[in-house]
Amino acid sequence: MGLSARGLRAAAGAAVVLLSAGALQAQAPASPGQRYRQAGDLIRTGDALGGIAIYRSLAASGLESGSLYWNWAQAAAARGEAGEALWAILRGREVEPGDRSLLRELERLREAANLDPAELAPEPMAALARFARRFHLGWLALGLAVLSLAAHLVGRLRPALTWPARAAWAAAALALLAAAAPLAGATARPTGVVVRRGAPLLDGASATAHSIGALRQGEVVPLLESGAAYLRVEDSSGARGWAHRDDVWPLSN
Amino acid sequence: MAPRLLAFLAAAALAAAPAPAQDTSVRAEVDANRVGVDDNVQLTIVIEGNAQLTGPLVPPALKNLRLVSGPDQSTQVSISNGAMTQTVSLIYVLQPLAAGRAEIGPARVRLSSGEKTTAPLALEVVPGSIRPPRQQRRSILEEAFGGDPFGSSTGRGRPRAEPKVTMSAVASRSRAYVGEPILITYYMYTQASVASVQLTSAPQFPGFWTEDPDQAKTAPQGERTTQGGEPYMRFAIGRRLIFPTRAGTLTIPPAAFRVSLARLSVFDGGGTVERSTATLQITADPVPTTPDFSGAVGEFQVRAALDRSTVGLGQAATLRFTVEGSGNLKWVERGPQLAVPGARVYPPQVKSDLKVGLDGIKGSKTWEFVIVPETNGALIIPALPFSYFAPSSGVVKHLESPPLTLQVEGPGAAAAPGVPAAPARPAARPDGLALRSDLDIPPRPLPEPGTRALLIGLGLVLLLHGVVAGGSLWSQRRAAVPGRAAPRQSVRRALGDLEQARKGGLSKEQAAALIERTLHGVFGNVDENGAGPVSERERAIREVLQQVQFIRYAPQLGDYSEQIGSVATRAAEVVRKWA
């Protein structure tokens, strides 16, 4: 009996351990991939808001990708939120500048929203910054600069050799060329997308401010200043004012 | 054609022909039946009709009157309804002789149709003068030239007085909402005869948007008015429709005019005067905007219509959204945003039919959307909103066109001309949306260097380049000391010189001098015949220099190019090894 009692206690203990492990396993957070697929399922069943909420939490945790923003844009477009769909596609382009399908979708959404191409690109230098990011021109410039330094050193140490001097000059020139794109791109002002139709342009950053106009849904506007709840923006006509952060979503972090 | 023309001309000739003589009437008139002894009275014999005078008029018999002047004859011809009528007036000026009764007897007139007689007239003459004083009779020169041309020389002339001409700008209202029309009228008040009026500078309307009202280009019509108790003629010489573009008190600066006065005679130079209007103040009230306010101010109506109710898949339909009414519709540039699920909507074309009148802008503006369905079935064109500010009620009003239905039937023919074909897209995906199944987080091995990091990195490399170059320079200066190695830049040049000596083409003296100069340039002053212990480096240099001296001073008995080449090669080795 005593043995069987010990056996029972051992079995009970093992069961508790197993149950606890099962419970822990059940409570373990789903992986990003699982949550991503769960969001897709929600959207397919008609819960676009639920799917977008998952995408938003994934993006907030740093798990941004072109696919995530692609799906986000599809869900937003299905809800009729053209501005949010455009923001998602543009944000996806920032994350993955080389994704061609994002560019095609961007063009489709732009036409659907009756926007001029210039209204989506108020800062031409931003394209240069994306190009530099896509091809890692910053790192390339630094690498070439170091290479030119090394060639210079070799040339000084081995004066009888002629190629190091040529290599040093060539590498230095290429380094400057490569650095020009990210440096020029850095002059572009940050931008945001008007996500709400008829979003008001206000004369102040307060709830009691007067409306001085309306922003166009989907339009990309440069961000001039940033407040707690408001952003100072400039629309395509040059009018400057404040817009609520809920109405204009920034494109860069 | 010719017979018709002849018939028309004949009819016109008959219509213009003189009427029968029996239609002619003759009568006598006086300008007053009761006059003073000191007054004059004017007798007019009026012959009305188409008969011609065939003989002189027999003056009427006068009783208690005398003839002062006359007859003066004037003729007036008028054509009415194709009939021509002629009126001949014979005017006499008579003067009473004494108070009491005066009579004018019948006057006989000989006409082509016969003789006619006027009825006698009776007048009452009272003592003194009862008629208003008449303007002093002007002299013949004054009659002819409008003044005495010799007045200035005779001292009878007077300088022309400052003409009484003023300008005024009148606003139809002094207070309006932003975007509401205000009519500005420029008036000229004058007591003088004016030949022309010109603006010396264009009127300025800061804070306003201006429009020229459409009006007939006719000469301004004058009207009698009083200003400061004096009679004036007033002419409206210009009108401008203005719309405040911002709220607040807006000022319209004075407008300056140059007025050219008419010449009163051939000796009158006319003259020009400058006149300005007064400053106008307009109070513009702000328009309470709402987020979707279009900017239109006035009274409007909207309507929307499709050019067809049924369309084939791939064909295009046109939706016309029209805003019509009175107000600043010219300001409204952006039309409503149209999105039709299941169809591609092209950016609209805007057509305006607006007329600027004196009371504002009226007409319509139409946005034409081309819609190309991409799915079959019934497409719902949503209601299109339009908001405007109504000044009469002081609120923003919201209008909406009714939603429309476009029936799309089967695969259609080619797209409408001018409209790009719809892209081949699945009308409806099996799962509704094209979602991507994998998250595909892009690999990010290194974060991109920021602008500051990039600038610092490049600057650091540049600095290191400088350090390397500076170190090299420092070592060159050290090598400039006799016996030390040559500057490193010259090593490359020295090797080039030695290569030149080795290749030939120089005399043995030139080649020897070049090799010697090169070695001294690289290693400094090394005595090839020096005594005492020397290092391996110095010994190698001395050996080469001694061979050079041998070649230089050797008798010219043969070809030394092989020896020169050998010495140059040896010298290059020494340079490479010891420099």
Notes on the protein architecture:
The complex is a heterodimer of chains A (253) and B (579). Chain A is an alpha+beta fold. Chain A is built from 10 helices and 7 strands. Chain A has helices at 2-27, 32-44, 48-60, 66-78, 82-95, 100-112, 117-120, 124-134, 137-157, 163-185; strands spanning 191-194, 200-202, 211-214, 220-226, 230-234, 240-244, 248-250. Chain A has a 5-stranded antiparallel β-sheet. In chain A, a hairpin with an 8-residue loop joins β2 and β3. In chain A, α2 (32-44) runs antiparallel to α3 (48-60), α5 (82-95) packs antiparallel against α6 (100-112) and α9 (137-157) packs antiparallel against α10 (163-185). The longest helix of chain A is centred in the N-terminal third of the chain and has 26 residues, at 2-27. Chain A starts with a helix and ends with a strand. Chain B has 4 domains: 18-126, Immunoglobulin-like; 165-285, Sandwich (Immunoglobulin-like), CATH 2.60.40; 298-411, Immunoglobulin-like; 488-578, no CATH class. Helices cover 21% and strands 37% of the residues of chain B. In chain B, strands 22, 24, 25, 26, 27, 29 and 30 form a 7-stranded mixed β-sheet that branches. In chain B, strands 11, 13, 15, 16 and 17 form a 5-stranded antiparallel β-sheet that branches. In chain B, α5 packs antiparallel against α6 and α7 (536-553) packs antiparallel against α8 (561-578). The longest helix of chain B is centred in the C-terminal third of the chain and has 29 residues, at 451-479.
Overview in brief:
The complex is a heterodimer of chains A (253) and B (579). Chain A has ten helices and seven strands.
Describe how the helices and strands are arranged.
The complex is a heterodimer of chains A (253) and B (579).
Chain A: H1 2-27, H2 32-44, H3 48-60, H4 66-78, H5 82-95, H6 100-112, H7 117-120, H8 124-134, H9 137-157, H10 163-185, E1 191-194, E2 200-202, E3 211-214, E4 220-226, E5 230-234, E6 240-244, E7 248-250
Antiparallel strand pairs in A: 1-4, 1-7, 2-3, 4-5, 5-6
Helix pairs in contact in A: 2-3, 3-4, 4-5, 5-6, 8-10, 9-10
Chain B: H1 2-16, E1 25-30, E2 34-36, E3 41-48, E4 62-63, E5 65-80, E6 83-96, E7 100-104, E8 108-111, E9 114-117, E10 121-126, H2 140-145, H3 151-154, E11 165-171, E12 175-177, E13 182-190, E14 194-199, E15 208-211, E16 222-227, E17 230-244, E18 248-252, E19 256-261, E20 272-276, E21 280-285, E22 296-306, E23 310-313, E24 317-327, E25 343-345, E26 349-357, E27 360-373, E28 377-381, E29 385-390, E30 395-400, E31 404-411, H4 451-479, H5 488-503, H6 508-523, H7 536-553, H8 561-578
Parallel strand pairs in B: 2-10, 12-21, 22-29, 23-31
Antiparallel strand pairs in B: 1-3, 3-6, 4-7, 5-6, 7-10, 8-9, 11-13, 13-17, 14-19, 15-17, 16-17, 18-21, 19-20, 22-24, 24-27, 25-27, 26-27, 28-31, 29-30
